[in-house]
């Protein structure tokens, strides 16, 4: 490299980065319950639920259907959502039991958790950031990927 060249400044975007971008999106554009995005056609950055914000972080734009994601973005989305679910399972388990007492799902649904009437935007943002911190703790050593 010549002395006049600028070194590359971009690095690999990690799952933790995507979760933090989703949290930042919610802080900047608002949080929503009930659907991925608030019903609006006049703005490109509507309030979003946790999963909708993760989709936007992965694709760089509002995504309504999985088919709109290219294979890399879909892989990133599924991975980030799985990490978020793992965090929720460990810190805020919310399982559904049927009338006979059987567990219906072994993992916390990020959709039901997001849509809980007692949920707040700050709780969602905090959970996304905490999931990112946990991912970093498990996958990086001194700021570098393991």
UniProtKB/TrEMBL annotation:
Q: State a single Pfam family of this protein.
A: DUF6197
Question: InterPro entries attached here?
Answer: DUF6197 (IPR045677)
The organism sits in which domain of life? Bacteria
Name under which the protein is recorded: SUKH-3 immunity protein
Whose protein is this, by species? Micromonospora antibiotica
Q: What is the lineage of its organism?
A: Bacteria, Bacillati, Actinomycetota, Actinomycetes, Micromonosporales
